[in-house]
Every structure is written in structure tokens, then in C-alpha cells.
Amino acid sequence: MRRQEGHLMSILQECFPLANGKPIPKIGFGTWQIPDGDQAYQAILAALASGYRLIDTAQAYGNEASVGRAMRDSGVPREEIFVTSKLPAEIKDHEEVQASFEATMKALDLAYVDLYLIHAPWPWAQMGADFSTQNKAIWRVFERIYASARAEAIGVSNFDVDHLQSILNGCLVDPMVNQIKFFIGHTQKEISSFCRDHAIQIEGYSPLATGAILNNPAIRDMAIRYEKSVAQMCIRYVSQKDVVALPKSTHAARILENADVDFAISDEDMAYLDGLTETVGGNHGPKMTSRHTLSLKAAGSWAGALIPRAKHRRSR
Ligand SMILES: NC(=O)c1ccc[n+]([C@@H]2O[C@H](COP(=O)([O-])OP(=O)(O)OC[C@H]3O[C@@H](n4cnc5c(N)ncnc54)[C@H](OP(=O)(O)O)[C@@H]3O)[C@@H](O)[C@H]2O)c1
């Protein structure tokens, strides 16, 4: 942590600037697969109490009402929280967009969202199909929502270069964010560099590969050396790539742990992590050098942080 005006400055208070100047926190809290009701309410209260200031939800997650209620009850001023929601991937008729946005706003019970995203370029059941014409029409509605100031920033999610290029050709307001899957070994180089070149902030979802990366031995060995958990290494890595990290947990201790990433991964170790491939499969990347390897005895309690590979669900 750094000191700023006599106070400890945590990464939770640090932001990246969006193209329109609006700051977006570097670390956010994900809410996919957190059921509406008490579980979501408590998780979001815990996240806000732990210092997170970005909450990522979506109409498809079905928990917007709990997100809004927890935000209001948290005691954290509305203007200090950055909340994101998303137009369901299945909505590809532009005439349905405004009504869906109104439903999101009603569920959240807020006057504005900080960021509104097109959840995916195609309905999940038609992944890969061409909806570029529909997405362009949807984007015009997004631009009107942005002009109304009820969404202070607009963007997309799961968009590839072609999807983004098609929106950029002829839009009035460029997408400010692309939320994509991003974790060690899965950094989507082509779309990532396209976004950087076009001042589109990347948000990295599933920074822990939905739990599947947490038993990776190469990252675990490095985590031991830093006296950090695998989750903390993964989240810090994403942030050091200038990508907003969006970890999710329903456990208060992990919510806190995932926010405790005020440390630096060295350039050499970042380069090593950049070189890892297939981090969630059987092959865990290049062989470790002795510099990167520590005795398993040193693993201590971190072994307790390992969890079995999580199952992926459809609607994210
Ligand atoms: N735009 C999209 O299409 C899209 C797609 C996927 C995700 N997202 C967003 O990104 C967020 C994060 O992605 P994600 O939900 O896939 O998951 P993630 O953050 O990559 O991983 C979450 C999983 O890891 C476990 N976990 C979290 N912290 C841990 C820790 N410190 N130690 C051990 N286990 C830990 C969680 O279990 P517990 O909950 O039991 O602690 C959960 O099973 C989502 O919630 C959502 O907001 C967006």
C-alpha cells in the first residue's frame, strides 16, 4: 500500500480512466452464479465492507435487485460505487433494448448505472453466428441511453476484433469497455491489443478461471515465494496487465483475500506468467526453473486454498 495525503492507499481505490474520462476501479466484484436474495445481498455487503467499489452484475444473473438493495444498505455513498449491468445476450432485436434496460433499472432501483454492456455478440445458444447488423442497431439505442446519462459509460462483452470493428465503423460513441475472459494463460492477445489501440478498457472476467486455475502448480509455487495465495497472484497479474479484474466469491474471508493484492509481481515473474499456457488443463506450461521452484514443504497452509475444478454454467 502507498500513502496518500496521510492515508493508506489501496489498489481498491485505484482506477483506470475510461475514454470519456470516467474512472473505473482496477478491482471489481463479480456476481455471476450468486443467487438472488440473502446470498447475493450478504456477498455484496461483504464486498463493499471489504473496500471493493465496483460491482459487476447482469440481468442474466437474476440478482440485480439484491445488488441494488445491498448498495443502498451498505452506507457507502452511491457516487463512490461503480455498478455495471448487461443487456442479455439473447436480446438481439433493438426494439427490445430500452425495455430491458428499464427492467434492469427497476430491479436495481437506482437512478443510473455506471456502465451498461452488451453481454455478448450472439445469443449463447448461437455462439459464433453473425449478429453484426443487430448489434449495430442495439448500439444506437445504447448511445441514446448514454446521452440520457442513465448509463455513465457503455460497452460490450465477449466481443472479438470483427465484432468491435463493425460497431466502430459508423458509431457516434465508441465502446468504452470490452469485458472478456482473462486469466493467466488466457490473455486473448489479439482482442486485447486491439482494445488497447482503440482506447477500449479491458475488464477481465473469470480471473480465477471460475476456480479452475487455483490448483495450478506453477502459479502455486510462485505464490509461495510471494507469500500470497494463488488467487491473489492471479488477480494481481490481471491488474498488472492494466485490465480490470473481476473476482467472485461468496465467502467473506475469500472476498477479503481477493482484495488484498497490494503487492507487485516482478517484471521477470510477469514474463514467466505470460509464458504459461493451458493453465487450467493437464499441461501447466513451461517447465519451472529452479528460481521459480520452491520446496513443497514451504506450501504450508496455501494447500488449503486449493479447490476442485469448478463446473462452468451456460448463462454468464
Ligand atoms: N461477461 C461475461 O460473459 C462474464 C462471464 C463470466 C464471468 N463474468 C463476470 O466475472 C466474474 C468472475 O468470474 P467467475 O464468476 O467466472 O469466477 P472467478 O472469480 O474466476 O472464480 C470464482 C470461483 O473461485 C472461487 N474462489 C474465489 N476466490 C477464491 C479464493 N480466494 N480461494 C479459493 N477459491 C476462490 C469461488 O468460490 P466461492 O464463491 O465458493 O468462494 C468460485 O468458485 C463473474 O462473477 C461475473 O461478474 C462475466
Overview of the structural elements:
With 316 residues, the protein is of the alpha/beta class. The protein has a single domain, classed as NADP-dependent oxidoreductase domain (TIM Barrel, Alpha-Beta Barrel). It is built from ten helices and twelve strands. The chain has an eight-stranded parallel beta sheet with strand order 5-6-7-8-9-10-11-12. A two-stranded antiparallel ribbon has the order 1-2. A hairpin with a 5-residue loop joins β3 and β4. α1 crosses α2, α1 runs parallel beside α9 and α7 crosses α8. The longest helix has 16 residues. It is globular and about 55 Å long. The N terminus and C terminus are likely disordered. Bound molecules: NADP nicotinamide-adenine-dinucleotide phosphate. The site of NADP nicotinamide-adenine-dinucleotide phosphate has 32 residues, from α9. NADP nicotinamide-adenine-dinucleotide phosphate binds next to α9.
- What's the number of structural domains? 1
CATH fold type: TIM Barrel
CATH class annotation? Alpha Beta
pLDDT averaged over residues: 90
Q: Indicate the percent of residues in helices.
A: 25-40%
Q: What percent strand?
A: 5-15%
Oligomer: single chain
Question: What is the H/E string?
Answer: EEEEEHEHEHEHEHEHEHHEHH
For the largest beta-sheet, the strand count, sense and barrel status come to: 8 strands, parallel
